[in-house]
Amino acid sequence: MTEEKKLYIVEITHSAYVWAASHEDAEDFADEILDNEDFSSADSREVTTNVLGWDAQAFVYHHGEGDLPLRDVLVAPTH
Predict the structure, then answer these.
(1) Pure H helices in 2-67
(2) Contact 14, 37 (CB under 8 A)
């Protein structure tokens, strides 16, 4: 039996302490935090439209062979 797949958005939150003069200065550490810290939490929700505004040709993450364009898994057309 083939498992039916659905499109999901996965949001990952990273958290770290940053000593800085302003929130802008603190946010400058985002890339370094992504490189060095494990994610603090992950959450997913099913979607049927292109709520992230990705190009329809963009590839989605999946377990399987080859590239999978967003347009091939959207239930509703992209905006």
Answers:
(1) 23-27, 30-36
(2) yes
Cβ pair 42, 10 in contact under 8 A: yes
Residue 66, phi-psi category: left (phi > 0), alpha (psi -120 to 50), beta (remainder): left
Q: Is 63 helix (H, G, I), strand (E, B) or coil?
A: coil
What are the angstrom distances between the C-alpha of 1 and each of 4, 26, 60? 9, 50, 24
Helix, coil or strand: residue 17: coil
pTM score, two decimals? 0.73
Q: Average pLDDT for consecutive 10-residue bins of the chain (79 residues)?
A: 85 94 96 93 94 96 94 74
Query: What ranges do the domains of the chain cover?
Result: 8-46, 48-79
